[in-house]
TrEMBL record, chain A:
<dbReference type="InterPro" id="IPR003918">
    <property type="entry name" value="NADH_UbQ_OxRdtase"/>
</dbReference>
<feature type="transmembrane region" description="Helical">
    <location>
        <begin position="334"/>
        <end position="352"/>
    </location>
</feature>
<feature type="transmembrane region" description="Helical">
    <location>
        <begin position="79"/>
        <end position="99"/>
    </location>
</feature>
<feature type="transmembrane region" description="Helical">
    <location>
        <begin position="160"/>
        <end position="181"/>
    </location>
</feature>
<feature type="transmembrane region" description="Helical">
    <location>
        <begin position="451"/>
        <end position="471"/>
    </location>
</feature>
TrEMBL record, chain B:
<keyword id="KW-0812">Transmembrane</keyword>
<keyword id="KW-1003">Cell membrane</keyword>
<dbReference type="InterPro" id="IPR002758">
    <property type="entry name" value="Cation_antiport_E"/>
</dbReference>
<dbReference type="GO" id="GO:0008324">
    <property type="term" value="F:monoatomic cation transmembrane transporter activity"/>
</dbReference>
<dbReference type="GO" id="GO:0005886">
    <property type="term" value="C:plasma membrane"/>
</dbReference>
From TrEMBL, chain E:
<feature type="transmembrane region" description="Helical">
    <location>
        <begin position="6"/>
        <end position="21"/>
    </location>
</feature>
<dbReference type="GO" id="GO:0005886">
    <property type="term" value="C:plasma membrane"/>
</dbReference>
<dbReference type="InterPro" id="IPR039428">
    <property type="entry name" value="NUOK/Mnh_C1-like"/>
</dbReference>
<feature type="transmembrane region" description="Helical">
    <location>
        <begin position="28"/>
        <end position="51"/>
    </location>
</feature>
<keyword id="KW-1003">Cell membrane</keyword>
From TrEMBL, chain F:
<dbReference type="Pfam" id="PF04066">
    <property type="entry name" value="MrpF_PhaF"/>
</dbReference>
<feature type="transmembrane region" description="Helical">
    <location>
        <begin position="34"/>
        <end position="53"/>
    </location>
</feature>
<keyword id="KW-0050">Antiport</keyword>
<dbReference type="GO" id="GO:0005886">
    <property type="term" value="C:plasma membrane"/>
</dbReference>
<keyword id="KW-1133">Transmembrane helix</keyword>
Amino acid sequence: MNPLVIAPVLLPLLAGTLLLLLRGTLSLRVRRGLNLTLVAIQILLAAALLMTVSEGDILIHTLGNWPAPYGIVLVADRLAVWMLLVTAILAWFALLFAVRGTDQGSRHFHPLFQLQLFGLNGAFLTGDLFNLFVFFEILLLASYGLLLHGGGARRTRAGLHFVALNLAGSILFLFAAGTFYGTLGTLNMADLAVKIAAVPPENLGLVRAAGLLLFGVFALKAALIPLHLWLPAAYSSTSAPVAALFAIMTKVGAYCLLRVGTLIFGEDAGPVANLYTGWLLPLALITLIVGALGALSATELRRQIAYLVVVSVGLLLTAFGLGTPAAIGAGLYYLAHATFAAAALFLLADIVAGGRGASLDRLTPGPAIPRAGLIGGLFFVTAVLIAGLPPLSGFLGKFLVLKAALADPAWPWAMGLVLTSGLLGMIALTRSGSLLFLRADGRSGATPASAGDLAPVAGLLALCLALTIWAGPILGLAQAAAEQVLRPQTYIQAVLGPTTRTEHR
Amino acid sequence: MKLRLFPHPVLTPLLALIWLLLANSLAPGQILLGLLLGWAILIFTLRFWPERIRIHRPVTLFRFLLLVLYDILVANLNVAFLILRGPRRLTPAFVTVPLDLRSELGISLFANTISLTPGTVSSWLSPDRRSLVVHGLHVGNPDALAATLKRRYEAPLLQVFEPC
Amino acid sequence: MLEILLSALILIGALFTFIGSLGLARLGDFYTRLHGPTKATTLGVGSLLIASMIHFSTQGDGVSFHEILVTLFLFITAPVSAHLLSKAALHLRVKSLASVPPRIDEADSGSDNR
Amino acid sequence: MNLFFVILIPFVGAGLTGWMSRFGRTPSAWTAGGVALLALLCLLPSSAAPFHGETLVQRWQWISDIGLDLALRLDGLGLLFALMILGIGLLIILYARYYLSERDSLGLFYAYLLLFMGSMLGIVLSENLILLLMFWELTSLTSFLLIGFWREREDARKGARMALTITGLGGLALLGGFLLLGEMAGSYDLSTILASGDRVRAHPLYTPMLVLILLGAFTKSAQFPFHFWLPHAMAAPTPVSAYLHSATMVKAGVFLMARLFPVLSGTPEWSWLVGGAGLATLLVGAWFALYKHDLKGLLAYSTISHLGLITLLFGIGTPLAAVAGVFHIINHATFKASLFMAAGIIDHECGTRDMRRVNGLWKFMPYTATLAMVAAAAMAGVPLFNGFLSKEMFFAETATFYTEHDWGWLLPLVVVIAGMLAVAYSLRFIHDVFFNGDPIDLPRTPHEPPFWMKAPVGVLVALCLLVGILPMLTVEPILTVAVASVLQTPSPVHNLAIWHGVNLPLLMSIAALIGGLLIYAARRPLFGLAAQLEGRLDAQAMYRWTLGRVIAFAAWITRHLETGSLQRMLLLFVLSVLTLGAAGFVGSGSPLTGIRATLPVDILGVLVTAGIMSAAIGTLALHRRRLTALIVMGALGLLIALIFVQFSAPDLALTQLTVEVVTIVLLLLALYFLPQRSPAESSRATRLRDLGVAALAGAGTAALTWSMLTRPFASISDYFLVNSLPGGGGTNVVNVILVDFRGFDTLGEITVLALAGLGIYAMLRDLRLQGPTQDADGRPWNWDLHPSIMAALTRLLLPLVLLVSMFILLRGHNLPGGGFIAGLIAAVGLIMQYLTNGVEWTHRRLSDNLHPVIGAGLLIALLTGLASLALDYPFLTSAFAHVHWPIVGDFELASAMAFDLGVYLVVVGATLLILIHLGLMHRASHATSLNPLEPR
Amino acid sequence: MEALISLIVGVLTACGVYLILRGRTFPLVLGLTLLSYAVNLFLFATGRLAIGLPPIIDRNLAETASGYTDPLPQALVLTAIVIGFAMTAFLIMLALKARAELGNDHVDGRPNIGDDA
Amino acid sequence: MLNLAVTIALGLVSAAFALTLWRLLRGPDQPDRILALDTLYVNAIALLVLLGIHLDSSLYFEAALLIAMMGFVGTVALCKYLLRGDIIE
C-alpha cells in the first residue's frame, strides 16, 4: 500500500479545497506562491513515482481497502506516471504565466486550477471505468470554469459549444460504461480485460458496440476527426495559461484510447482484440491533414496554434494507432514534446497579442511588437518545434513515429500524410511568423513584455531542448512504458493478483 | 441568552414528535435525538419565523380543526358529486369576502381553510388585505356564501389569533 | 374485518383520486377544474394514507404513523398551491365561466407602476 | 572529437558574435572571423587522414536505440566541402563587414551566418543520415533568416518564405527517402549504407526512395522545376548570395547526390531522373540568365544553370563524370562567389543592379572590373581559367555518352547550345556593365570600393587563375581524394590539363565560344522572344498559383468543416456515434435478442411507459413554447422517479425527485432572461433530417437496451450485497457503495458539484442581465412580490423540511437516503424561503457566503479518507463500531457517516450557491416592493 | 417489461437528440436533460429489472446475496444524476452568460438574429 | 380481497394519471398545465402508497413524503414564474 500512488490525486484536491477556504484569509501573493509550491510538489511527487515504477513495477492503491475488482483501484504504471509528470510540469509553467495577472480575471482561478489537476491526475491513475468517467467530469467542469475565466463573447460562445458537446460526450460515456457493466458485470478495467477475453459469441455485439462507443467518447476528447470541431474555437478564445494547460486535455483522450485500446482491447482480448487500431490509424491520419489545412487557413495566430494542436493529436494517435511498441514509445515521447511546445506557443501568442495593441493576434499587418527580436526569436524556435523541423524534439518525435510506421502496411499513407501536414504546418507558421514579426507597419504597439512574461515560455522551450538532448534516456522511458502497456497481463496481475479473484464470492 | 439557547419550549417537543413520526420509533435514543434536533433546528430557523405565534384559545383552535376536518369530508363528497354530475349544471362564481383578520398567519389559515372546504378556492387577496376573492364551484347565493365563510371559519380564527 | 376496512379505504381513496382527476379533465374552465384536484385528491390520498397506516401498523413491525406527516404536508401545501394557481390564472386573465370581479383587474394592472 | 568542435564552434560562436556586437561592428566582425578561423584550425589536424585514404568517423551516443547517433565523418568529399565552406565563409565575413551599412545589425547578421556555416558543416561532416537531414533542415531555416535579413523589404520576406517552403518541401521528402533508405540498408550510418548499394538498388522500394531523396536534392540545388526560388532569394544581402548560392546552400543538393552516388546511381531511373533534371536546368537556367536585366538575377540563373550542369554530370554516372562534377563544384564555387561579390560591389557603389543603367563602369572602377571580368571568363569557360577545365571534361563526358546511346547525339548538341548561352550571358555581364557606353541615371557616382572589400574577390579570382593554369599542382590532390570518397573506389585516371590536343570537347568549346559571341550580338531580337516566353514558362507563377490553390483549398475545407455551428458539431457527433455503435454491433453477428426471460408487463409499467412517451413527445412537440415544455418535462421527471420506485430503487427515486425540482427551479430562473418562445428557424428539410437522425439514435439505444436486458449476466454486485453489512456496516447497499465501496466516486462527484458551484459563481461575476418588464404576452408582471399566504405558510415549513433532511441523512446508511438526497432536501427547503420571501428577507437571516460550507464539506470528506491513510490503511478505508450508551441504547458510528456529512454540506452549499447567485444576479435590475399600499 | 424500458430509453433518446439539434440554448438544455434521463434509465437497467427487491439488507436474514436487485447500477446512476445536475446547472448558467454577451440565445450567438422571433 | 382492492385501486389511479396527463398536454393555459402537474404529483403519492401496500414494503414512504414536498415547491415556483417572471427576487 504505497501512499505515493494516491498522493498525486489527493494533493491537488486538498490544495484546491484549502485555496478555496483560505480565499478570504490569504493575500493574492501568498495564494499564488502557495499554488506554485503545491504544483511544484506535484512535479516532485510524479518524479518520485517515476523512479519507483521505472523498474517495471506496477503500484496499486485499493481505495477503501476493498480488493479489486470490487473497490476502486488506482494504478500507477509507467504510462500513467509519465502522464502525471508531463501534466505537473506543464501545469507549473502555465501557472507561472498565470500568476502574472491572468488569475485575476475572475474568481476562483486557483482552486479551479488545482481541481483541474485533481481531475487530470485521477483520470490517469484510475483503474476503474466508471471512476474514469467521474474524473472526466471533474476535469471537464474545472476546464469549463477555467476556459470561461475572464469572459468575453467569443470565449462564452466557444465555452458553450465545448460544454454542450462534452455533455453529449459524457452521456455517451455512460451508455458505453453501462453496456460494459450490463454485459460483463464489472467496471474494473483489468477485470474487464479478463472477462472480455472469455466473452461468449452471442455477447460479442454488445461488447464491440460498447468498445466503439467508448472510442467515440475518447475521440471527442482527443479531438479526432470529425469530432475535433470544438477545439479550434475553444483553445483559441480562452486565456493563454488556460490554453497552455489545455494542451494536455486532448492528450487525456489519447491516453484513454491507448489505455483502453491496449488493456481491454489488446492482443489478448480474443475476438475483440485490436478493436481500436483499425479505426484509429485512418482517422488519425485524416485528422493530421485536416488540422494542417486548418492551420494554413487560420487568420489568427491562436486559432492557428489550436489547429496545430489538432495536428499533434493526429500524429500522436497515428503513433498509437500503429500499435507497435516502437510506435507507442515514439508517441509517448512526442506527447511530452507536443504538450510543452503547444503550451509555449499559446503563451507566446498571448505575449504577441499583447504587444500588438488592437491588432491582437490577427494575421494582418499591425504595429511592431516591442522587443520583437527576442519574442520573434522565441517564436522562431517554438515554430521550429511545432512544425517538427530539425533539430529539436518535434523533429525527433515525428521521425520516431515515421520510422515506426514503416513496419505497418499503411506506411505510404502515414508517411505521405505526415510529411504533407508537416509541410503545410511549416508554410502556415512561416506565413504567420513573417507577418507578425517581419512585416510591422512601424506603429508602436503596447507595453513591452517583461522578462517574467517570457520566462515560462523560455522554460517550456528549455524543456523541449532537454527532451532533445536527453532523447536517448527519455525515449528509453517512453519505450519501456509502451512495452509495459502492450503487456496487459502484468497490469491485470498487479490489479487482480496472480489468480483471478473469484474465490471472494 | 436563555432565550437564545432554548428558543421555544413548545416547538422543540413538537419537532421531536415529528421526528418520532418520521423514525416510526419510540426508542429512547430516538427521543433524545429528536429533542436534540428539535432544539438545533429551531435555533437555526427561528429567525425565519415572521412573528411570534401566540395561540390564545387552544380549545377553540382544536374545535375549529375538528370542524374543518368534518367540512373537508363533506366538501369532498360534495365536489365529487358535482364533478360526476357534469360541468353543464355548475354555476361557478367569484365571491368577495371582506376580511376582519389582520395577521398574516390568520389570513393565510383562513384562506387555506376556504380552499380545503366546500367547493371554494381562495383566489385573490386584495393588496390592502381587506378582502379575499373566493371562487366557488357551485354558488347559489354569493352573499350567503361569504357570510357562511366568515361565520364558520373567520370567527374562530379571530378568537384564536387576534382576540382584541 | 380489518381487510374489509382496508379495502374500503383503499377503494374510496382511489375513487376520489380518480374523481379529482376526472374533474380536472372534464370541467369547463380553469377555475372549476381547480376544485377537483385540491379537494378530491386530498381526501383520496388521505384515505389511502390512512389505509397504509393501518396496514403497516398491523403487520407486526410496530406502529406506523409516519403517513400522518405526508397528510400534514398535503393539507398545508395543497391550499397554498390552489391559491397561487388561482391567483396566477387571474393575473393571466384565464378565461372564466364566472364573471371576474373588476377590482382584481384594476389592482393587478392599474397599480403596476413599472 | 575535433570534428564535433568544428561544427559546434560556429554555433556557439554565433551567440558570442551576437553578444559582441554591442561593442561595435569591428569587434563583432573580428569575432566572427575568429570563430570561422578557429573552426578551420580545428579541422586541420584531421585533414591529413583523407589523403591517406582513411575515413575518419567520430561518434557520440545519442539515441542509439533507433540508430541515431551524433556520428561525424571526414572523408575527401567532406573535407573538400568543409574547406570551401570555411574558406569562402572567411572571405564573406570580411566582405560583409564593409558591405553592410551602419543601419544593419552586423552582429545579428554574423550570428545568422555562423549558424548557417555550422549547419552546412554539419551536412558535409555527418556520418549519420538523420543527423545529416537535421543539419540539412537547419540550413533551410538559417538561410530563411539570412535571405529575410532585410525584413522591412517585401521581396526579402517573400523570397525567404519561398526558399523555405521549397527547400522545406524537399527536406520533408528527404526525410521520407532517408527513412526508406535506412530501412533498406538496415542503418542510418553512411559507412553501412555506402557499402550496401546493391541491396538498395534491388529493393522494390528503390524508385520511390530515389524520387524522395532526389526531390530533396533538387529543391535544394534549385533544379528545374524547383529552380525558381533561387532568383527570389537574391533579395538577400549580397554576401549572403555570394555564400549561399555559390559554395554552400545550393551545393548541398549536389553534395548529397555525390554523397549517395555509390548507393543510388547506376540505374536507369537515376540516369533519367538526375540527367533529365540536370539537362533541363542547364538549359533553362542559361536561357533565363541571358535575359535578366538584374545583375544578381543573371548570376542567380547562371548558378541554376551550372548546378544543372553538375547534376547532369552525376546523372551521366560514369566515374569520370563524377570527377568532372566534383571539379566543377569547386570551380563554380570560386568564380561564382567572386562574381557575386563583384556584383555586390557594383550594387554598393551604384545603388542599382539594373544592367540597362549600369554601364561603362570600367572607367570608374578598373580594378574591380578586371577581377569581375576574369571571374566571368571562368564562368564562360574560357581557357586558362578553371571553368574551362571542368567544362572541357563535361563536354568530354557528354561526347562519350553520345557514342554509347541511341539519340545520344542530342546530348552534346544541347550541351553546346547551353555552353553558347553561358558564353553569351558572361559576355553580357562583362560588356553591359563595364563597357557599353556611360552609366545612365545612377543614384550614386561609383568609384572603387575599399580595399578590404575587393580583397576577397581578388583571392578567389587568383584561385580561378591558379587552378585554371596549374590544375595538377593546386586542385588535383584534393580532387582525387574527394572523388575517391564519392565513388568509394580510387579515383579514375584523369588528366587535368589545359591542352589535350584537338578533340571533340575542344571543338565543342570553340563552338560554344563562337556561338556565344553570335548570340550576344543578336541579343536584341532574342530579348523580345524571351520576354514573351517568360510569361509562359514561369515556374514561380505556378508556385504562387499552387500555393494559392492550396491555401484556398485549406480555407474552403476548413470553412466547410468548422462552421462554428454547434448544431453541426452535435449532428456529426450523433452520426459518428451511430456509425460506431452500429459498426460494433452489426459487425459481430450477434443476435439482437438474448435468451434471458423477461418480466411480465403490468399495469403500472404500461402506465408509466405511456406517460413517459407522451410526456417526452409532448416536450418535443411543445418545445418552442418553453414554459410549457418545462412543465411537461417536470412530469417526465416524476414518471422516471416512478420507474425507479417500481424497479426497486428507492434511493434513485428520491434523488430523481429532488434533482428534478431543483432543475426546474434552475430552468425557471434562467428562462426569465430568455425568450419565452423558440423561433421556428430550421427548414422543413432540416427538421425531417433531424427527426430521422433522432429516430435512428432512439432506435439504436432501444436496441442496445433490449439486447442487454435480454441477456443473462453475472456481476460483481453479489460481493457488495454480502459484504455491505459485515464489511461496511450498513444495510442500504446502495449507500454503502456510495460512501464506502466506491466512496472515491462520491468524492469525485461532490468535487464536480463544488466545481459547478465555483464555476458558476466565477462566471456570474460582472454578468448583468436585464429581465423583461412584462411577460411574453405583453402583460406587466404582478405587483405582488411575495404573496403573503404563500409566504406565511412556507416559513412554517422550514423546520419541518430541515428535520426531514436530517432524517434522510442519518438513516441513509441503512435505509434509502443519504447525504446527497438530504442535502438537496435542505437546499430545497432553504430555496423555498428565497422563493416565497425574497432574497432580501432571507438574506437578513442567512449568509450568502457559501464557500466555507462547500470547502468544509469537501474537507470533511477528504479528511475522513485521510484519517485511514494516516493509520496506514488505504485512503477512504472505513471503520464502524457499535456503541452502547446508557439511555440512548445501541447505535452505530461509522466513518462513512462523516463522509456522508461532507457530501451533505457540499450539496447544500453548492446547490444554494448556484441558485441564490442566479437570483442575486438580477437583484440590481429590480424595483423592490411593488405593492402600491406598502411603503417602499 | 424489458421491452417497455427499451422503448422508453429509445423514445427519450430520440426526443433528446432532436432537441439538442435545435438552434437555441433552451431546447439544448431540455434535450440534454432528456438524454440524461435516457442514459440514467439505461444505466439503471444494466442491473436488470426487478420488482420489489430493493437492495436494503434485512438484518434478520442470513447474509445472502439473493433476493435483492443489483445495487451497483443504482449507485452509479446516483452519481450520474448528481453529475448530470451539476453539468446542467453549469450549462444553464452558461446559456445565460451567452445570452448576455452575444445578445441572443442562439447557440452560436449569431449576430444578425433577433431575440424574440 | 385486499389484493383485488389494490388492483382495482391501481387501475383507478392509473386512469386518474392518464386523465391528468391528458390535461397536462392539452392545456390550454399554463395554469392548467401547472395544475395538472401538481395533480400528477398527488396521484403519484397515491400510487406509491398503493404500491407500498401491494408490495408490503414501507420503503416507499420517503418517496411519497418527498413527492409531497417537491410537488409543492415545483408548483410554487411555476406559479411565481407566471406571476412575476423572476422567481427569486
